């Protein structure tokens, strides 16, 4: 009986922490939407004009990254920033998945989409499959050391509670794919 009580206490604590993390995640999404006025669409006509220097705007950029796999939707000119579909078959010969590839994709995105913010918040899915967490922490420390950002807040989601909002939509999209013939994005819209 004592073991059962201990397990219940641990479970209740885990759920409480997960709910706090979930609230924090949702609060950051809300702040990101409110802060969207500071975002530059790199594919808009404004993008060709000179941008502010790095680390000059006192605003926070919010990034969530989770790699969508096996969802072959083509690039859209209305898309804000690059979208990477990370699938090993698409890599050039000699390039594989792992920390280096992942962090190169993230660095490219930060350069393209976030040239002027002083602070960023990153939410990671805490996936340990490629053992990238230590490299990821070192990478973000390096970005602060080279003064690309003043602060970087790095959040790893709680194991067992690592679903991003976009995961819901990828799940719905995958279910739709299984039932449909899709050749273009217009097919999805239909």
Automatic annotation (TrEMBL):
Signal peptide: none annotated. InterPro entries: DUF7869 (IPR057191). It comes from the Eukaryota. Residues 96-188 form the DUF7869 domain. This is 2949_t:CDS:1.
